[in-house]
Hints:
Elements: E1 2-5, H1 12-19, E2 23-26, H2 37-47, E3 50-53, E4 72-75, H3 82-96, E5 105-109, E6 112-116
Parallel strand pairs: 1-2, 1-3, 3-4, 4-5
Antiparallel strand pairs: 5-6
Helix pairs in contact: 1-3
Amino acid sequence: MRFKIDENLPVESALFLREAGHDALTINDQQMVGELDSRVASVCQSEKRALITLDLDFSDIRTYPPAQHHGIVVLRPRNQAKATILKLIRQLINLLLVEPLDGKLWILQENGLRIREGEDS
Length: 121
């Protein structure tokens, strides 16, 4: 699967995904630091990449309808320590083996996964 890792996540997130066989680029890799959310979403769509982020704005299915994206994962850690976030990335990698992401919004917490699907507008 193809991923874009938002600038608010450790770069090791992309490394973990690559080690698991995924194509993962960071916002930093593409010199997109500071870009508007709408631009990040647009680039993800054009590159057919799922976005992984801590940014709660991407959990608004009216603004970012899941059906129009290749997947959006919003991580909701209990704290933003690097170890906590990387634990969620490992959890995400395991979930990808059993649950489709394309066209869905995943809200991933340490104690579970919520999946939202939105209407295509």
